[in-house]
Amino acid sequence: MTRKRRRLWLLLLCGLGLGSATALTLTAFQDNLVFFRSPSDIAQAAPTPDRAFRLGGLVEAGSVARETAADGRPAARFRVTDGAHAVSVTYTGVLPDLFREGQGVVTLGKLGPDGVFRASEVLARHDETYMPPEVADALKRSGHWNPAEGAAPPAASWNTLEPERSRPRNGS
Amino acid sequence: MDTANLPPLAASLLPRGGSLHRFANPGRFLRLSGRVLPWLTAAALAVLAVGLPWALIFSPPDWQQGETVRLLYIHVPMAWLAMGGYVGLAIGSVLALVWRHPLADLACRELSPVGAAATALCLATGSLWGKPMWGTWWVWDARLTSVLVLFFLWLGHAALVRAFDDTERGARMGAILALIGAVNLPVVKFSVDWWNTLHQPASVTRINAPGLHVDILYPLLVCGLGFTLAFAALVLARTRAAVMERRIRALQLAAARRAEAG
């Protein structure tokens, strides 16, 4: 019995040491493990113009202007916001399918001296909500949610919604 | 032999007698698992026969992902199995290291290739989903990177336990690797909460309510159950085969010894 007991204690001790070492390492590298920085982070401490970093947030409602660059490629100007602050972004290239106003995006690029972020890559970020098109339509029609303004309302209010049956009731 | 005063590793390296008791439990395991396995397989097939058509054909598309959302019904159960299976591997490794349970060694050895396959499927379906939705096959964010590390841990365990001529030694090394790798599990799970990532946070296990409409949530849960049953059936069948293989080898060895003596 003592050998088993001793092996168990040894294992627990090793686990404790390994766990705290990992926790300390991850805490120390906190800043590097972050995938993108928010406009508020940029407002607090703007990175130098020659440093590439990722900027993430929601595409501000009404800020998207699609253009055509001099070489004929599609281009876009929009603002990325986290509610408190916003950063203007320019991008030349094809935007992902999920790109729209109110959608989360992560852009890679450099912040110019004029405060405009020149992105070389734009990725769309999907949030954690999944709903059938009819449910999204019902929420939009009833005025509970405007996708351009951000995340969907609390899931409990729609995740059991049956649009086919509730439509006549809502319409009356 | 008095081994009580030796350190655990040295004591474990000494030859131990009573090989009979080491296979006493596997005998009972074979009897029990032989009775459970057909039912488990049938249950897995039945649940998947309901869940997969429901998820892949009859469930609604997502309002902005369209039909691409159907990858979720494979991706999410595989992610659950990659992590849940690893929890099983860690428990088996503790049993093997502390209580020296020979069945735990065998189960761990047979678990890791299945776990690696589940993790590979999780990564592959995630990548296929990422290209049309995010706009990229792969990014080095905390969630994706930690799951890739999990995949390498599964592969490393499968390779390490098979790399030694002495199977017991290989099993012990594998168990140590599995337990060291277990620190990655909370990192995988909470990476989306601790750091900002491109990967979305958890939808099903949210504190307030699942962020999925029930028309998407229910087929997902049925698929999750079906794949879990199939995973369990696969691992059980593999472990049974491994126990029988050991037995046959022991019988052949005994026969060869008798022939030599006679």
UniProtKB/TrEMBL annotation, chain A:
A Pfam family per the record: CcmE
Extracellular side: 29-172
Main location: membrane
UniProt topological domain (Cytoplasmic) ranges: 1-7
Matches recorded under InterPro entries: CcmE, CcmE-like_sf, NA-bd_OB-fold
Membrane topology term: Single-pass type II membrane protein
Keywords linked to the UniProt accession: Cell membrane, Cytochrome c-type biogenesis, Heme, Iron, Membrane, Metal-binding, Signal, Signal-anchor, Transmembrane, Transmembrane helix
Biased composition (Basic and acidic residues): 162-172
Cell membrane recorded as keyword: yes
Stretch forming the signal peptide: 1-23
Subcellular location per the Swiss-Prot or TrEMBL entry: Cell membrane; Membrane
Keyword flag Heme: yes
Region (Disordered): 142-172
HAMAP family (UniProt xref): CcmE
Functional summary from the UniProt entry: Heme chaperone required for the biogenesis of c-type cytochromes. Transiently binds heme delivered by CcmC and transfers the heme to apo-cytochromes in a process facilitated by CcmF and CcmH.
Name of the protein in its database record: Cytochrome c-type biogenesis protein CcmE
Lineage, uppermost ranks: Bacteria, Pseudomonadati, Pseudomonadota, Alphaproteobacteria, Acetobacterales
TrEMBL record, chain B:
Keyword Transmembrane helix: yes
Protein name: Heme exporter protein C
UniProt keyword terms in alphabetical order: Cell inner membrane, Cell membrane, Cytochrome c-type biogenesis, Membrane, Transmembrane, Transmembrane helix, Transport
One GO term (biological process): cytochrome complex assembly
Stretches that traverse the bilayer: 36-58, 78-99, 111-130, 142-164, 176-196, 216-237
Keyword NAD: no
Membrane topology field: Multi-pass membrane protein
Superkingdom assignment: Bacteria
Record-stated family: Belongs to the CcmC/CycZ/HelC family.
InterPro entries found in the cross-reference section: Cyt_c_assembly, Cyt_c_biogenesis_CcmC, Cyt_c_biogenesis_CcsA/CcmC
Any GO MF annotation of the entry: heme binding
GO cellular component, one term: plasma membrane
General function of this protein: Required for the export of heme to the periplasm for the biogenesis of c-type cytochromes.
Organism, scientific name: Siccirubricoccus deserti
Cytochrome c assembly protein domain location: 28-199
Pfam families for this protein: Cytochrom_C_asm
Signal peptide: none
Subcellular location: Cell inner membrane; Membrane
